[in-house]
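User: I've been trying to design a sequence by hand for this structure and keep getting stuck. Would you show me what you'd pick, starting by listing the structure so we're on the same page?

Assistant: Good idea, let's start from the same input. This is the structure you sent:
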């Protein structure tokens, strides 16, 4: 399979060190901001907006996980989300979910799936 370089978000080995990685898609002042998390052998992508007040989840680059790395943490208000589903299990937005960004792993690269409309997501979540 030939890899479309415009859809590459990172290499899988970039996730292994911390279990998560921030990405930006698009250009200009308002690109789509998202992040990837590794949950076991799977990689999941989400828009970097909390389900509570639409603030970015991280304060520092590539910092999206709880101290033990088992869950996603919103540093603004302490909401905690499942890595594999984006579902909020604790905090002010309990019962709501993060917005998923479809990704796939091909030849050690994490790619944005072709079905994802980056411009539509960016227009809605930036």
């Amino acid at each position: 399979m030939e890899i479309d370089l415009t859809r590459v978000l990172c290499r899988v080995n970039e996730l292994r060190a911390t279990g998560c990685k921030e990405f930006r898609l698009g250009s200009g002042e308002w690109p789509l901001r998202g992040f990837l998390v590794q949950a076991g052998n799977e990689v999941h992508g989400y828009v970097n907006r909390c389900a509570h007040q639409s603030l970015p989840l991280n304060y520092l680059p590539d910092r999206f996980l709880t101290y033990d790395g088992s869950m996603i943490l919103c540093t603004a208000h302490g909401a905690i989300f499942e890595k594999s589903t984006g579902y909020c299990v604790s905090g002010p937005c309990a019962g709501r979910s993060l917005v998923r960004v479809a990704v796939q792993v091909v030849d050690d690269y994490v790619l944005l799936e072709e079905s994802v409309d980056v411009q539509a997501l960016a227009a809605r979540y930036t």
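That's my pick for every position. To get oriented when you compare it with your attempt: Strands lie at 8-11, 20-25, 32-39, 42-47, 72-73, 80-81, 88-90, 100-101, 103-106, 109-112. The two ends are 32 Å apart (CA to CA).
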